[in-house]
Amino acid sequence: MKEIGHWINGKQVKGTSGRFADIYNPATGELQARVALATPAELDAAIRAAAKAQEAWAATNPQRRARVMMAFGALINKNIEKLAELVSLEHGKTLPDARGDVQRGLEVIEVCMGAPAMLKGEYTDNAGPGIDLYAMRQPLGVVAGITPFNFPAMIPLWKMGPALVSGNAMILKPSERVPSTSLMLAELAQEAGLPDGVLQVVNGDKEIVDAILDHPTIQGVGFVGSTPIAQYIYGRAATNGKRAQCFGGAKNHMIIMPDADLDKAADALIGAGYGAAGERCMAISVAVPVGDKTADALVERLVPRIEKLKVGPYTAGDDVDFGPVITPQSRDRINGLIASGVEQGAKLVVDGRGIRIQGYENGFFVGPTLFDNVTRDMDIYKQEIFGPVLSQVRAKSYDEALNLVIDNDYGNGTAIYTADGDTARDFASRVNVGMVGINFPIPVPLSYYSFGGWKKSAFGDLNQYGPDAFRFYTKTKTVTARWFSGIKDGVALNFKALD
């Protein structure tokens, strides 16, 4: 049985704890590897080595750090097929989707190539008699990234790129379900010129997460996962005086107005609702057509599109639309929620339970599922399903549809399909959600903006990647400097000393 360890000081090392987590092939259900779960002592050794390496890395000028990002990006692009294969093997998503996973992470690395401009400070000449005032951005020191299973390449790259190019060292703790992609990315970063110790990959479970949150050397923590864990990590990190950005769950709605192009809206819902088996925090899981006529027409368009979807293993290539979910526990939880929707009175239009793929009967598959007449008190509406389940909630008016989104606990992403510019502008202005799509189903901003939700989808005041990432991974130091050159000076007892 293959055993996966950690990446410490520029090389792969075996774990010493004797504890392991199982890694399955989601398409076959077969146990394919075990990953070592680190001890707090192993983590402490990695952090001490990172702190030592960070000093020289921080002293490296930003342009040279950006050149490492440039070489790193080139190596990711060169190895995109190998990385995608690793993503698919451990996560189960299709190869085209896995390539997209790597590509969206690569785009953040490309922005990091321009980091010198993002890290510039400010300067005011002659702020007072003989006085210069300037501010500089300096790295936090050693930071940590705790990343989820659903994007094994993208989210680690979202974390490591801005953190490293800003002069920090990073302890990356990927999901123990998908460790191999992060380890390969660490190898590529070293090949690109990143000094040993600046990036450490430590695999582990809650024991290591808690050790990261309590370790005095760690200055900042970035996390993506479920809302309860995001809130837990944010609170514990803040209690220990650490900077934290923690992103949680979602329940993303798409409003479909009567004037919308329903064929385009249906196509968008298929991709946004069922892509990656729904295991995306930006998946559209709730369709909100306005008016029964719109709702009926939308279902008529959705059903034949759903019936054409092909579910299967990533090895089937482009012939498969989406693959299995990550674990048998995820499959069973999703099936249980589908059952609860039926029990609570929703209309099950397409049932994805019990799907069997020839030759992959033990895989963790759930077929595409569609509910109609869902109400806000049902479990399938209140909970983040994180599976290929689309719920239709009918609204009588635009205001009712808008308030459905506003009242929801989550605020990650939302969308509206309409031909009316006034309605679209009103929606974008009033909705209390972090990322908004107008005739666009998954409004993930490009990498030179920032990604982040509102309400219970995010904890912390700075978003991922883009300008916010550089603000998060650096702290501002402001210097007031006076050079005495013939200026008479006296004792100042008030705040007018610069006048």
Can you walk me through this structure?
The protein is an alpha/beta fold and 499 residues long. It has 2 domains: 2-248 and 457-479, Aldehyde Dehydrogenase, Chain A, domain 1 (3-Layer(aba) Sandwich), CATH 3.40.605.10; 252-438, Aldehyde Dehydrogenase, Chain A, domain 2. The chain contains 16 helices and 23 strands. It has helices at residues 40-59, 62-78, 80-91, 95-112, 115-118, 154-165, 180-191, 206-214, 227-239, 262-274, 292-308, 328-343, 379-382, 398-407, 421-430, 466-472, and strands at 2-4, 6-8, 11-13, 20-25, 30-36, 122-128, 131-139, 142-146, 169-173, 199-201, 218-224, 243-247, 252-256, 284-289, 347-350, 369-372, 389-392, 410-411, 413-417, 435-438, 454-455, 458-459, 474-482. It has a 7-stranded mixed beta sheet, with helices on both faces. Helix 2 (62-78) crosses helix 7 and helix 3 (80-91) packs across helix 4. It is globular and about 80 Å long. The model has no long low-confidence stretch (mean pLDDT 95).
Helix share, percent: 25-40%
* CATH architectural name of the largest domain: 3-Layer(aba) Sandwich
Assign an overall shape.
globular
Walk across the major sheet and give the strand order: 15-16-17-14-13-19-20
CATH topology of the largest domain: Aldehyde Dehydrogenase, Chain A, domain 1
Percentage of residues in strands: 15-25%
**Main beta-sheet annotation:** 7 strands, mixed
Query: What radius of gyration results from the CA coordinates?
Result: 25 Å
What is the end-to-end distance?
A: 73 Å
**Structural class by sheet pairing and helices:** alpha/beta
Poorly predicted runs: none
Count of extended strands: 23
CATH superfamily of the largest domain, please?
Answer: Aldehyde Dehydrogenase, Chain A, domain 1
Count of runs of 4 or more consecutive helical residues: 16
How many domains? The number is 2
What is the CATH class designation of the largest domain? Alpha Beta
Integer average pLDDT: 95
